[in-house]
Each structure stands twice: as structure tokens, then as C-alpha cells.
Amino acid sequence: MALEEIPFWEDRQIKNSARDSSKSLMVSPDKIFIFPVAKPIYHLVENIWQSFTNKMVSLVHFDDEPVFSFSIFEVIDQDQMRIVATATHFKLREIAERRKIPGIEDYMTKARPIHLSDPRNESARFIQKSIIDFNKGLRPEIQIINLKEAEIHPEKRILLSETMNYAIGLPLFVNESPIGILWGITKDPIPEDKIRPLMLQLYSLFDVVDFVVGKEAESSNDYYIAQKNIEKADTVSNSRNLFYTTTKDQKEPVTSIIFKSHQYNNEYRMDASFIIPTTEGYAVSLKSFTPEKLNNSGKNLLLIPGFFCRRSVMDKLGKELALKYGYRVFLMDMRGRSKQTMPKHGKKEGWTVDNYIQDDFPEVLRWIRWHYRSEKTVVIGHSMGGMIPRFYASSYDIIKDLKDEFNLPNPEEHIAGVVSITSPNYISLKSNFIGLDTIKKGFGMIPHKMISDMILSMASFSMQATIQTIDLKKFFKFLLNLHSSLRSFSYNIGTRVLTIKDFVGYKEITPPEWYFLMEDVFCEESVSVIMQFFQSQISNEQSFLSNDGKINYSKNFIDNFNLPIYSVVGTIDQIVPEESLKDLALLKSENKVITKYEQGHLGIIFHNDTVRKICEGVNDWILKLN
Fold first, then answer.
1. pLDDT tens per residue across span 394-446
2. Residue 392's CB: how many other CB atoms inside 10 A?
């Protein structure tokens, strides 16, 4: 099924229009010669072709239903086609219970290469036809096959299981030459109303593979980067234009990309990264989503990620709020999250949660107000990201006195409201962490240095030689004794320690989503930040204190916070248990809302249906703010 109304590259289509002027002169597809994949391209592809099938099984329809239950990739290997990679959509429960996912190993064992000249090699025939389509300036035709009725090569027929009934084939090209065909396989046919949206996603994937593989083959041959860029690619949008833009605030250009969203049928621009200097040589980095049509709420949104997380963890929320509801959305990377936020010169020290609250956050408020003087900001934070605006607003007078800064942004003037998603007032993990009860009982007798050394002895790594940080990815690799690949691992290591299962709390997740979490979202965190959280956990006072102990943020939040607040609670959250959020009911805020979802700590901002419901409620709430 070809969507010829969707051009490949419009200028290419115009240039090649003359080639199709006489159909009588067009060569027959079965006469097309299929060249072997160039060696440099093949070498790169064989190191990343698992990302093709992983991405295929991660595709979902716009109603969140998974598209494919199974995927395979057939590569052009000299004069034959060979199945080299497979993937299946699976649930975390299957991993946690150490279940063997049936079919994959057996499938690969039985797979045999098929010569390109074999008349029964339907994949080769599709490739030949796709070369003609491509030569006309069109994306290759996507094949939809009923596997039970079509003539399938005997070597492939024996591979089919009872649940493999329908297949969709996407020929892949790199540098204008085919490299193979990517198949998605389902038990049931794709409904008619979902075919066109799916085609748009598949063509986006086609473009991504062509661009990423071609670029890496010409430059660095970085398998990790190529793999990552394919698996995290946004297939529900197409990039239209890319520019490097200037801003008065910084020397470095901002990357500005204009996208067309298939799902929302509108355009938006992503700008990354705005660099905002804060204190001691550190900086904050912002990216923004600006929709084609802004709403008239007069509100900008600032999204702040949590503990150990980069801003990309907030992408789903940010895009939903920008593209469906018309908000200008900013996503914040705090200090230490990237090289751009680190000091370039001089001695580098670790940072604390106080730096996030007292330095980084107010500078972002100041920056947004400078650029949008008539608009207030609604701050949306996940986990620690929700603590930051709440603690800043409720401890503002104390912070102002301590910093002796007369023009510190007044929360009443800058912040229209706060949305906190699974954000604690103090730390109360549901964990049987080894020795936690003993440590908690004897907390007053244990020196601060001893506790810090204990944490560092478990896993410590360094972003810079002079900064002590802990990397969550490496920390869990250390605990689980993982190898460099995170594609296969036991995600539940028992009840004696806090596990990544507890941290994520996600009911269902695909391999690329795991990859995205572990390789793109989780980051390093300062040991001093970790210490503040750890001290709150083992304290008997149910409080979160500043690093020097002078500010009791938890008490100030209950006593002083009066801004409008919309609180989202995860009922199966092990990191911020529902019972630890009972203080929310005590707030003096006149406009306060508490909503609950059956989700875990990170799952609540990753699960598509939950994200949509949260955004719907947040939008309704914002429209009622002054």
C-alpha cells in the first residue's frame, strides 16, 4: 500500500518527475539488480540492526495499543537475504519472573538465508520494487501481507507460529541504496482506520534509519549513538526544518527544529538548548516546545525532572501539553546534568538540593519573565522536581535573608501555580534496605562522614575528576552485576535492597523504553544531594532539611505554602508512598487538588493514557487560575 501523496523529498520528486513521463519505458521490477550493501554501511548496520526490530515492536497506535507483537530484520548479505535480528513486545513481569520469551531463539536457529535470484524470495521482489519507487522520488511501497494466504518461501513458512498471521514490510535505504527489509508481524489484521497513521510512523522510521546510519557511516561510526538515536526517535512526528539560531543571552547557537506532528496534525518548534548561568560557574539548560497555535491562557509551563533524571523524562508530558493544549513549554536540566551546565574553569565542587532550590530555579524564573514579561509560569515537577518550587515558595523569605538578595524572584509574582507529580515532603521509601532500621535507630550517634563513606563505598563515579557523583545507571549495573548492554537483565534482584523495579514502577514497557530510561534519562547525581535524601529517609522527624540544617523545608511547606497546587499521587509508588503524602491535605492553599492514579514512580509520567489524563486535568485547572 503506497502513500504516494506523501513525498519523500519534494525537491527530489520535482527533479525526477521527468523519469516517470513514459510508463512504457519503465523497466520491469524483476529486472532490477540488487547491489550488495557497501562494506562500511554493512559493518555499521550489523552492530545496530537489533535497534531496528526493537524500534518496530515499540510502535503503538495513537490509542496506545501496540502495533506489532513480533519483528524481524532481513539484511541484504552479498547475493542473499538473511534474517539477522528479531524482537518481541513483552512485559516487565515476564522479565521479573525470569520467564523465557518463547519463539525468538528457536526462530533464529531455524532461519536460513535465501538467494536474491530465488523466484520465491518475496523480500527480494519487494526490494526490487522499492528501488523503482525510490528512483521516482517516492518512499518505498510498504507491503501488507496475509501470511496464511500469501505464497511464502518454504524456508520462511516453517518459521511461522499460530500467532504470526499478518506482516507489514518496510524496505530500508541508506545513501539511496537498499540495505534490507524490516518486518512487523501481528496476529490480527491492522484496522483500516489505523493503517494510514501507521504508514506515517513507518515512513518516519524509514527517514530516521536512512539519516542516522548514513550520518554515522560518514563520520564517527559510533554504534552506541546510532543505536540510541534510532530507538528514541519520535516516529509520530516528521522534522521539517533545522536551524541554528542566535540569542542575546549566550554565545552558543540554539538548535531549532520544526516538526509536523502526525498525531495532533499540527506543527511545533523545539529549541535546545538555552543556557542560563547560575552560581559558582554552573548553569541550567532549557529546551522548549512551542506549538503552531498558542492558547490564550497567558501561562508558560516549566517542567522539572526529578532525582537522577534528565529533562527528557518529561517529554511526553511536555509534548501533550504543547501540542494538544497549546502551551509554550520549557523543560529544565539542572546543574550537573550535562557538560553545558558544568563550570568551564576553576575548582569544581559538588552541589546540593539547596543549589537547585535557591540558585538554579530562581534564575530560570527570572529568565522566563525577562523573555515573556506579561506571562506567569506554572511549574510542573516530578518527584524532586516538584519539591523544588514548593520549597522555594514556602521558604522564600528565609532564602532571601540568607542570600541577602533584594531582587530574588517573588513566587507570588512569578508563579501562577505548582503541579507536583509524586513529589514528597520528606523521604519515606518503602524499602528493606540492608541495615536501614538499625541506621535509623542510631542515626544520632553516626557521624555524617561515616554515612557518606558508606554510600560512596557502594558505588561512586565521577563526572569530573574533582566532583564526587553517583551514576544511577552504573549503580544498578554494579548491584545487578550487569554487562555493558542493558537489553537483557534481571530487573528484580530480591527484597533486600531498593531495586530499579521500585524506581520505575511501570506495569508494561518495551525494550526501547527501557533503553531510553537507562541510557538517556538516568544521569549522575551529586553525592551531597544523595546525602540530603538519605538523611531525610533515616531521620525520625519526617523532615527534609537544607544541607547546613538551617532550613526545615518540610515544615515551611506545611506552614507557609499558599500558592495554587495540583498534586498527582501514584497509588503503587514505592519511592513516594501514598501514605507519606497525607500532609498535602493540611496545606493552606485555597486552590488545591489531589488526584490519584494506579501507577508507580516513573510509570506515572511514561504511561501514555495516564499522561493524557494528567494533562487534561492540569489544563482544566490552569484555565481556572488567575
1. 999 999 999 888 789 999 999 999 999 999 998 777 654 444 454 455 444 45
2. 24
Nearest partner of 173 among 34, 306, 301, 380, judged by Cα: 34
Instruction: Considering only CA atoms, give the Rg of the chain.
Output: 27
Question: Which grid coordinates belong to 499?
Answer: 531495586
pLDDT at 1: 40
Q: Give 282's contacts (C-beta < 8 A, 6+ positions apart).
A: 335, 336, 341, 342, 343, 351, 355, 359, 360
**Alpha carbon distance 337, 330 (integer Å):** 16
Contacts 24+ apart (CB under 8 A), 530-536: 530/455, 530/470, 531/448, 531/451, 531/452, 531/455, 532/352, 532/353, 533/307, 533/353, 533/427, 534/427, 534/451, 534/455, 535/451, 536/426, 536/427
CA 111 to chain centroid: 33
List, in order, residues 6 or more apart from 541 with CB less than 8 Å away: none
Asked if residue 56 has pLDDT above 80, the reply is yes
What's the rounded Cα separation, in Å, for the pair 620 and 193?
30
Distances (CA, A) of 12 to 9, 15, 16, 138, 202: 5, 5, 6, 9, 20
User: Which residues fall within 8 angstroms of residue 139, CB to CB, at 6 or more apart?
Assistant: 3, 6, 8, 133, 203, 206
Burial 131-160 (b: 16+ CB within 10 A, else e): bbbbebbbbbbbbebeeeeeebbebbeebe
CA-to-CA dists, residue 509 to 58, 59, 225, 500, angstroms: 9, 12, 22, 13
Measured CA to CA, the distance from residue 271 to residue 91 in angstroms comes to 34
Q: What is the pLDDT of residue 514?
A: 65
- pTM recorded for the entire structure: 0.82
184: β partners: 71, 168
DSSP string, 242-272: EEEEEETTEEEEEEEEEEEETTTTEEEEEEE
For the beta carbon of residue 364, count every other beta carbon within 10 angstroms: 24
SS3 155: helix
CB-CB contact of 181 with 127 (8 Å): yes
Average pLDDT of 57-82?
90
Cβ atoms 59, 184 nearer than 8 A: yes
Grid cell listed for 187: 496476529
- The pLDDT value recorded for residue 63 is 84
Count of C-beta atoms within a 10 Å radius of residue 460: 16
Name the average pLDDT for the chain.
Answer: 82
- For the ranges 118-122, 146-150, 359-363, the maximum mean pLDDT occurs at 359-363
Is beta strand 266-277 parallel, antiparallel or unpaired with respect to 237-247?
unpaired
- At residue 389, what are phi and psi to the nearest 5 degrees? -70, -35
CA distance 315 to 318: 5
Tracing cell 576553576 back to the chain, one arrives at 346
pLDDT class of 465 with cuts at 50, 70, 90: very low
Instruction: Reduce the secondary structure of 376-400 to three states and give it as a string.
Output: EEEEEEECHHHHHHHHHHHCHHHHH
Higher pLDDT, 223 or 333: 333
